# Entry
Amino acid sequence: MPVAVTAEVIATRPAGPFRRLVLVAPGAARDARPGQVASLGVGGADSALVLRRTVPLTGAERGGVHGDTVEVVVDPRLDPGLACLAARPVGAAVSVLAPQGRGFPLPSQACACLVVGAGLPGAVAPWLTRRLSSTRQSVRVLLTDDVPDARREVMALRGLAERADLVASDVATESADPRRVARAVAAAVHDHGAVVLYLAAGPEVTAAVMRTTDEVGVTAQVLLPVPMPCGTGLCGACEVSVRDSRSQAHEWLTACVHGPVVRADRLAPEALLRYAGVTR
Amino acid sequence: MTATSGALRSGRADLRVDVGGLRLRSPLLAAAGCAGYGGELARLGVLTYLGALVTPTLTAHGLGDGPPLVLVESPSGLLYAGRRRTPALAQLTPSTLPWARLEEPDGTEREQPSAYPVPVIVSLGGADEAEFSHGAAELRRRHLLRPGSAVEVDLAAPDAENAGRSFCADPAGAADIVRQVRLELPADIVVLAKVAGSTGTLVETANAVTRAGADVLVVTAALPASLPARPCGAHPRAALLSGPAVAPVTLRAVHDLSRARRDGRLAPVPVVAGGGISTGRQVDELLAAGASAVQLGTTLLHDPISVRRIHTELADHLHVTGRTTDEGSVMKDDR
# Structure
C-alpha cells in the first residue's frame, strides 16, 4: 500500500556516475520489497518540470534511528529532473510516493535462485539478494560492472550468496553487453541449477535474457524497464499488454501499479522493447 | 450556478457548488485522463477532496492496440501523444465499470452499488458523430450511468473526417454531436461539452452546443502541439500540450465566455475551467472570472495529493476574501 509523504534527504553520496539518496519517508518502508518503485516529485507546486520520476527502490528500513527510510539511486545524466533530484542536499524535502507496484515474489520453498542486475535498475539486486539469503535460499548473483557500486556490492554479496560474479561491460559503450549477459546467465543457470531467475536491467539486456529463458528452462521474474511518467497509476502511459498466466488471454497491465515485476513469459521481448521506446 | 444553503463547511469556507444541476461538495474536479478511474486517489485518501471525477475518455468501441501513450515534459507543460487505452462502452456492464469498485484509504475494497465516493462524470469520445451517438446509446442501454452521474462530451478530440481538426472548430458539427448525445441520454443526465479555448470560434461553438442541449461548458482542452523529434524519431508527431503553460489560455477562455454571457451573446450556462491549474489562488481567480468549477489535470500527475493542498488554499482564500464559491458566477453578474 503506497503512501504519499514529504520525505527528507538524510544521506546522499555518489555511486560512480549515479547518486544514491536515503530518504526519511514515514510509512513508505512498511511492506516495501525489492522490485517496487518510488515515484518522486521534482520541485514544488510551481516547478516547471511537471512529471514525476519513477525509480526502483534499492533499500528500505523500518524503524531505524531516523524512522522509516527508503533508498533510491538516480542517474543525473538522463534529464534535468533527475539532475535536480540528485542535487538535493541533506535536509531537503522530496515528495515521495512509495512503495508502489508489485515487487519480486520470494519463493515459498527453498530453491536455487539466480539474481541478475545490469545498469541502474541492477542497483536493486543487492537488496533482493539479502532478502533471498534471509529466507535461506540458495542464491547466485551476476552483476554487470555498470551497476552502481558494482565491485563493492559483489564483494559484499560474496558473504551472503553462494557465488557472486561481475560481468564486464562493453568497452565501446561502457554499458552492459546484452549478448554477453545472456550467455553468462545461461551458463550460471546451468552451473547453479537455478529454477528461478530474477532480473533487473535495462530494456536491451532484459530482452536478450528473456529470449534465452525458455531455452535454459528457468522461471524468470523481470523488472519491466518501461517509462513510468507519473508512477502513480494515474496517467496510464505505462500500460503494457501481457498474457494472463493461466488463460493466455491478453490483458492490460499498468506497469507502475500492477508491475513493474512480471513473469517473463507474459510478454514477448519485442513487445518489451517497443514499450520501452527502444523500437517503434 | 446557484448557491447551496445549509452550508457543509469544508475547512473555513463552504466549497459546495451546483454546476448546471450537478451538486458537488467542492468545485475541484479531476480532469479526464489525469486521475484514472479514482482508485489511486482513493487509496491515497484524497478522492473525497474532489467534487467529481471525470473518467478517461471512453468510446463505444474502445481504444485497444495502437501506439503507446507518450508523455513528454516541455517547459512548464506536458506534451502527450496517443490516447490511453480504454475499454469499449459496448462491452461494459454496471458491475464491470472500471470505477465500480473503489478502495477505502485503508486498502479495503468496497462496492458502490448505488453511490460512488464522488460523482462520476463519464468522458465520452468518438472518431465521428456516429461513434459519439453510439457511445451515448450504450451508456443508456447498458445502464452505465447512476443518478447524479454526468457525461462530458469531448469535442476537443480530433475529427477523423476533417483531417484531424477538432470537432469544436466547427460549431454546427459540434452542435450536431451534442444534440445526438442529448437525444440518446436520459433527460436527467447533465451533459457537459468540452471545447478548446484556443479556437477562434469559442463563443460561437459555446452558443451552438448550449442551444443543442449542453448544460455546462468545459474550457479549455489541451492545445495542439508537436512532440520534439528526439523521443519519437525523425518525424515530428502530433501531440497536445497541457500543464501550467496553458493556464493563461484557460483564464482568457473563461473571461471571453463571461463577457459573452454578460453581453447576451451566450446563454447563462455554467462554465468549468480546466488547463494548467495548480494552486488555490488560481482556482479563486477563475471562479471570480466566472467559472463555476475547475478541473485539475497535470497537477495530479505532478503530485496526486495536491488536490488536498489546493482545497485548503481555496478555502483559506475564500475565508480571507469573504467570498463563496458561487460569488464569481456570471449568473450573478447577469443579474
